[in-house]
Amino acid sequence: MLRFAELHTTTNFTFLEGASHPEDYVRRAKELDLEAVAITDRNSLAGVVRAYAEAIKIDQRIIIGAELLLSDGQCLVALPTDRNAYGRLCRLISCGRQRAEKSQCLIHKEDVLEWAEGMIFILQAPEEIDGQFEESLRYWVAELGSALYLAAENLLLGQDELRLARLHEVAQAHKVPLVASNHAVMHRPENRPVADILTCIREHCTIDEAGTRLQKNAERHLKSTEEMLELFSGYEDAVRQSQEISQKISFSLDELKYEYPEEVSNGQDPQTELERLVIHRLPARYPAHLFPHGVPEKVAELIQRELSVIKELNYAPYFLTIYDIVKFATEQGILCQGRGSAANSVVCYILGITSVSPERLDMVFERFISVERNEPPDIDVDFEHERREEVIQYIYEKYGRHRAGLSATVICYRARSAIREVGKALGLSQDTLASMTSLVWGWSMSDRVTSRAQIKAAGLDPDDRRLALCAELSQKIMGYPRHLSQHVGGFIITKSRLDEIVPVENAAMENRTVIEWDKDDIDTLGILKVDVLGLGMLSCIRRAFALLKSHYGISHTLASLPEGDTAVYDMLCKADSVGVFQVESRAQMSFLPRMKPRNFYDLVIEVAIVRPGPIQGDMVHPYIRRRNGEEKAVYPSKELEGVLGKTLGVPLFQEQAMRIAIVGAGFSPGEADQLRRAMATFRKMGTINSFRDKFIRGMERNGYDTEFAERCFKQIEGFGEYGFPESHAASFALLVYASAWLKCHHPDAFACALLNSQPMGFYAPAQIIRDAREHGVMVKPADVNYSAWDSILEPGEGGLVLRLGLRQVKGMNEGDADWIVAARQNGYVTVRDLWLRAGVKPAILKRLADADAFSSLHLDRREALWQASGIKGEKPLPLFSYAREDEQGMEPDVILPKMHIGEDVLQDYRSLRLSLRDHPIKLLRPQFPGTMKSKSLLSVSDKQRVSVVGLVLARQRPGTSKGVVFMTLEDEDGSINIVVWRKVCERYRRAVMTGRLVQISGVIERKDIVTHLIADRITDYSSYLEKLGDENFLKKASRAEPVKNRPVSLHKHPRDMIKALFPSRDFH
Amino acid sequence: MQRMICIWFPFLESERLIRQNHDLAQRPFALIMREANRAFVSALSRNAENMGFAPGMSLADVRAAAPDMLYYDADPMQDIRCLQGLLRWASRFTPRVSRGGGHNLYLDITGASHLFGGEDALLDTLETQLNDFGFAARLALADSKAAAWGFAHFGKSKSNITAEKLPDAANDLPVEALRLSYASTALCQRLGLRKIRDLRALPRVTLTNRIGLEGINRLDHFFGRRAEVTEFARYKKRLMEEAQFFDSLATNAGVEAALEELLEKLCHRLSGMQQGIRKARLQLERVDHETMSFSIQLTRPSIDVNLLKRLFLHHFDQIDVGFGIDRLILIAEQAAPLTLHQLSLENSKVQNREQDMERLITELSNMVGYRYIHRFIPADSHIPERAFSREAALYASKSQRWIPSSGKRPLRILKKPVSVLLHDGIEKKAPETVFWHGHKCHLTPLSGPERIEPDWWRDDPGWRNGPRDYWWVKTHFGALFWLYRVTDGMKTQWFVHGLGS
Asked: What ipTM, to 2 d.p.?
């Protein structure tokens, strides 16, 4: 039977051109009953794995290929027929991409010939079929012979019949078969608007200007065999040719066999080497003085079991690879820590990949490596974020760029970026778009701007047709890939050439090469990757350890911290966790006092539980109730008790959710994994329903409650996007413990290390310092005579004090700071002195003056600035430096007006983003009579009405909260947790979303020691912050009426903008 | 001693609009400026400013806060024109007037105030008259431009500052009144130097080190210790020639001769300026005080006396000399630099053709009126009726390339396509017969179909029926039709959209 095969498609992985997902083509091909569909993106194979995954699922044949756009403008579709030809295509694209800039590709005619063996080529005819084209056709025929075909389209452009006849004539003359195609850019004609919008984005024009750059019609879509035959009547052979070509191609992506790199060079068998290493390193982890009876029996047994699994699956090379990387890091003094299912094995503990000893948590071994599910083991390694690059370069160096590459991350349009770009293409003005995007939180479009009132509130016209189009199309474009970026650290390392598996291209960052596939694609194909990630907390911990050693003479490693320290857990139970890894967020803080962690495994749960998965599945409260004995732990069945025993019958970890699908709903392990993946990306949502039915029916069949089944499924849904497995939680928990231990016992060193590792974590330096002071740490301001670039600990009255580093000073750079330290000698006496000796530019001097860093010279901010601004010339002339100093010493003294406290604080924020003087709210408090301070809220009884005022520290609207916004305010006493219900949020939308200083009235809600304020009235007083420097304003105490609250003017020097001065951290 | 008045118009932009539309006086409104990617408020009406808005806010912010506010586009050119008008008005008080940056005027009234009843009376007069025009104005009189500016902006309105009063009066003005550079003003603020008093308290040497020589100069200008150069406005002479006749002209021939003389004079003057006439007007005044006037326009500026005369001659049949014409005025209403053309050897034919075409357009436009002579300009669109636009030929930008890739288009496109056939079902081939104005036509298809989809982003009533399939067909009587087909799934309808040959 004659069936058409579409051999030339452009998916949205040809960025800003293809208007459909690769999966869409595959599904549509199935609907149309096509012989096959080729995925041929321009000079790229980036989309093929997605198509392949879909093809397997729905059993549709696909062909892997690429459209080659040559440097001279000719266009060929290349379709490899077998594995070797595929390898050559990868090499060809890699070579074209590596010689060009990022995301560009430069392929010459000669390159094609070099790698052409085993490929079928379809030449695309230009618009004009002239002598020049015949010339090049002759060239290709001579070089490629029978592998060459000529593409023919009938796209209803008016002169198609003439063109077809002409093509036929030329093809006959050169004995090249014609092959029918649509040169598709979309899977259905309905996607034309999307294609047009992409064109506009690509061409940087609006839809009204785009004109003939747009598609004339929607004919470039997939068509059925019947349609093709009709369009090619008289040339049916061209349609038949497509089928014949597709039958000549045998290559499929499942032929890509992945091979681990061999780690052993001396001819040793990797397994033997691994076993040798384990035995060799065993005494280091289980030293004789601690384990007089030798290694515990349980551990020995585990080692045996793991080694045999590793042997069976031939994973030894993988462990050796990771061991090698970790060994390198350890030798360089880079702190690192492994996580992931395999990382929690005894083998990894012994090899030093992780510091969590297996007996420390009764670790589930079921997900270590499952024999039946032949998937690669999962180990991620976190390194100090500042030194990760060294590790990356080591890997490149060791394996070579042809064998090691970073995996890509597909950057997709999200709600905001989609609205912004689509709106621009539709000709909406930038400010309209700004108002529109500012109303979108997060990136699920279910939350897009729909209500007229909201659009109106943003100052826009809800009846505008373009706005409606913008909303509609941006929703469509969400999830479209925009460009490839490098993954944060996912390395692919192969035994043979990597660039014969996938094209490798240059990354934006120097010295990096990236493959074209992302981690999902790699997963799909079962390729191993090593995640080399950067983690700020590791830098912080390393710094803290170093401070402990130099100031207290204590040396520690992650593994050596004393376990089970009661004081540490006491501290966490009080939610005193600013700066502590993972548990410092507001949600975690309000959860800690309820969870009351008392041991390491509690921390593991703590890390995993406050996540969208368990929250969406409504698992948090049942767990807490059971834990606190308010509810009995019941198990839906005996089998599930085995799965859920550790978590009191409530599924919290990803592993458990998967086990439920297997044990409870009768999924095979493979299916369970498919289910997890199906939900990993939102755009595959369509396929979820079938899984859902299957899951719930399976649970019901096994006698479970429907409601329980639905809850479990919901949770799996949550895990899909934010999966958090126990194995990762365990590794993180160790860092939680380590950072909490440091904070508890050495708050000075911890705060200092935190400050020097910024930016990281949830809090800004202002909050870190405030917290440190509350824990009795003396903090001293940055000063040219005492500070270095980093913050340091220095001896002071009654112990060590924390001296802020010059890094806190806005506009300061490390080089100048180093010079200031190096040339300091016995201290600087005048501003001029600093200029002369450290060679610091006057501009920097002024910044230091603004930061009040000259107080040890008995100069206040203005006096220092006066002196600094008197210095002219970038650099002192060496010969006259001393003479000039004397001469300048003659400058008469001046008396400048003293700053009042408000000015000082404002200037502190301007220059340092924090103030060690007074909190702005303390100064403004008289303006807000009747408001309560955060500390006194503790004594207010539940359900009482209060009014508070504070700076907005953070606002969050988790996807799980159904439109509720959590705000965190800060006043002079501490922070206040605000809950804004959806209705209230809508009413005070602008204040909630853009306010920096707000007054909020509402009702207190208290549970244990956690206090929330449920807001019902929110007023934006951000403009008051501008008046901090106005003494008269501050002096006038409590007004009956608030002064007219002017909207904050945005047309100001950026230095003075309130938005920049008092930023809040917004998480969506 | 120099006496200088500064007049500042704080609400010039909005008051200019109110003068055009008095209803606006009661309503808050804002003027919007677009800059790169931002639309922001550049000026506000007085009552809008009283509501708490300030220039510089983003349009969206203002809209959100005051949904009922009215918006207009700012037009800085008009503002300047308005100021220039005011400048001309001011020149009745003193010939030495000039326009400063921003919305300020300076009047040097040294030795002139006594004509208006003294300095204070003059200030009163100025203010009253400006208020009558509908402009709020803040005025100040001082010995220097800088001081007048400072007091107009930051002092009491109508301050009259004499040399003796200046030091004391200046003390309380804010530093901004000195108009230092942004960086210097900011520095002063950071140093806590808010008033001019604070600056004066500082030793001059040290101050120079901080605010620079330029800053010190500003200070000296302010206190009149250093003269500031002012360039006063001068008015250009109009490009105009006139002739008076003792013996009035009684025939067109006489007028023609006189016109030729005027044209020669004017063109001679223009040629010295390298300018040519684009627009000219001839005014004829009769002895009975009737006036007639005729205008001509050209595509390209010219000083060709013969050409210009010929263009005027087109109007001569309308001249009614009556009892005779005793005055002729010729005004070049619009002049532009002469464009000189390099004659090229190879292309001289093309060039000549182009020039001939221009001349033809000029002649025709002046004969029948330039509104009636059009040129088709290509536009970039797949939609046939959007693929061109019509512009007055006299002003049209010349010879843009037609985009050939859009497919073959007919010479004549019908404004409203004519329905020629309707039948049930969906027919994909071109029809064999259609009814064109009631006559049956037999057709032979030539090419097609060409499918054109409507522009999905606009709601074009003509295109609501969805995509069209266009065909070129030949009728049995030899004409070419550009046909298209639309279908609603049940019926197919055919239209003729264009005719070719």
From this structure: 0.70
